[in-house]
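This part of the workshop introduces the protein records we will be handling. An example says more than a description, so a record of this kind follows:
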Amino acid sequence: MKLSPNVLLLTLTMLIFCACKSDESVNESDNETQNDYVNKIMALGASRVEGNRPEFESFRYELWKQLKENNWTFDFVGTQSDNSNYPAFNNQNFDTDHEGHGGWTSEDILDGINEWITETETPDIVLFSSPGGNDALQSLPYAQIPININAIIDILQETNPNVTILIEQLAPGRSDIMTSELISYFNQINEEVLAIASEQSTSSSQVIAIDMYTGFTDLMLADDVHYNDSGADFIATRYYNVLSSILD
């Protein structure tokens, strides 16, 4: 049967219209998937992650407020939960999940990381706080610290090949406890962190060093090594400035 020119034109127009609608549906679906995605963030470390209100602060609460204020979609994850009292912010309650264990060394964290990741949701982003800090305070052999840190990163990347790891160049303790030996120890760790970040980054998993050392002062400490409100805000802002450029 021979179709008239008008019928052919109408048929062609309908086909083009349907194809366009189909593409729009795919794009809308993609956008919904992206917009609905929840970034799972694990704060990993020792007492600077854990916090102990009202004696000293963790950076987690200040970071949570900054992320909420700027409308990021995320979920703090971890096997630990903070039982301290925190004011609501924008009519929302603080997400208290974390992976901070007071007093733990790099070896302690390495020994526990597999179990923690098994028990909780696999993180998309890990905030690796003060790596080697307790090792330094306990005068443990330096040579083991980079070995442990690299092994922890290996496990995180094996669990999630796309994980992003923000690793701190750790903030100093109060100046009256920072002996020449401890200063040397901290400086060595912080230089090591830069090398680890470069060497451990892959095409799908960024390892990013964040300088928490420069600009940090005694006025930001509640005691020898832990943050007060000012210190928590300082650390949180350094984290936020990087997170805001990498969050989905």
The CA atoms of residues 54 and 84 lie 8 Å apart.
